[in-house]
Specification:
single chain; alpha/beta; Rossmann fold; GMP Synthetase, Chain A, domain 3; 27 strands; 31% helix
Length: 496
Amino acid sequence: MNAAETLLAAGCDDQLALQCCEQQITYRLLRRLVRQNAGAWQARGVRPGERVFVAAPDSVDWVVTYLGVIWAGGVAVGVNPELPASELQAMLAESEARFIWCEDEVARAVEEMAGVHVPAVRNDRGWAMEVAAAPLVPPVKRDSEDPALWVGTSGSTGIPKCVVHVHRTVTDAHSFACGVLGADSSDRFYATSRLFFSYALGNALFAGLRVGATVILDRDAPTPAGVEAMVEHYQPTLVFSVPTLYHKMLQSSVARRLAPLGVRHYVSSGEALPPATRRGWRDATGLAPVIGYGSSETLALMLYCDDESGCLKPTPLTEIGYAAGADPLVPQRIWMRHSAIARGYWRRPESQADSFRAGGWFSPGDLFLRHPHERLEFTGRNDDLLKIAGQWVSTSWVEQRLAPAGGDALQQLAAVGVTTEEGLTALAVLAVAAPGRREEAARRLAAAVETLPRHRRPRWVHWVDALPLTATGKLQRAALKEMHAQALGQRVAVAA
């Protein structure tokens, strides 16, 4: 099979496939452009299995290039074009990439890298002429377990890894969109996240193409005003976004203005959506976001919640397994199986052994509590679960109880487990107040802390200007302990 051919098989010739800015192309034209692009890569010497990095803002050209690499038998690797040069250099060296397709700024950075000899292919007039002169080639057939694309993990909890997705992982990439959202070819998919992020890549681009629908792309980084403009102009029916942006759109009243614009479903993933944000969004738009759970290792969302329970259930085609002998009353890791799950990691044998198992099973590093009828309560990552005063405490639980108390005076909040001078485990909270409202936010947060059971109260609250985020907009939890250590000399304990 060929994953690119599979993704483009469903769209009717005259159906609109992609829209970006004022550019729009049909499935007939998209298939032609991908075949020509693949011909250009083959003329450049790309052989089956070789990696080509795609490092540019989202666009029609991005999609054509990405699919063209796969059509040609290569392996497409979408990366953040704003990645620091040192990180990009390490990824290029480790991956043994054949080419990097990019724009001028990234190309100049690559050409200046010492010890990295990866040709930069600029997305300019010269490349356009090269593609236009290339033959329309047939798709290179590969084994279903051969690599088709790589996705980088977000690095929210440590060093990023390259996830190897094979050709069969696109086959059911639309299982969540179809089985939960009822998507079909009449829908218009729009993700606020960039395409190098697996959430947008799998659930918006790949799922939209698999059902023959229209996919809306945005070259610019998302802002509340930008999302409002996109929805107003392009009229998407399915919107995929992240909790931080949903919260910002609520605070800026964008959510209320989106209500009459024809969106059928909002989806939230990337990190936990606070219940207060979900309720606020429902009150503002009439639609509560469907909560989805997935990771870079899964192209489709594996778990979802579409009610007020907060508990997750498997998406269509997803199987759930548990470790033998695990206590169902204690948060535990789970195992998942679905055709959209990756084959594993590139050159990370320890992580591979920890997270992947024969038979297509994958276990994320998150913990869940089991409830009847195969319902799962997300309790945070393995290192988010702490034992304080002999009792288990989830930092995720603390965040979800404290964040709503700040209202619109509080922009962001994160909890982290730290070690006291006495060697005991304690909680610290890092918070960001709305401009000019720190005093109000601090007062409201302090009152909320007093309502928590004593073992769940943070020992420190640090007010900071911003929390560290990954390129995909997720909280970079690995940096929180360092922020706490830096703040200790400036802040005092607020709860004993």
